[in-house]
Amino acid sequence: MFYTYLLQSKKDKKWYTGCTSDLRKRLKEHNENMIFSTKGRGPFKLIYYEVCVNKNDAFAREKYLKSGMGKRYLKNHLKRFLSLTG
What is the pTM of this model? Predict the structure, then answer.
């Protein structure tokens, strides 16, 4: 299984979208500053993820979610969550 995921920094409230085959391990790596692209922005909370059987599908989904249309999709899909977290 492959996971496309969305993290939110508890520090700056910004989002990070990524892809992995081991979601728990990857979240731990983000929170321990082991990932260059998010170093210094943690701690993070996992706010969304999708599961794919195929690695290529997961990476294609990550690319889409990072696009303008993908960001709009996430904001619309997570409206209730976003209103609760301010």
Answer: 0.89
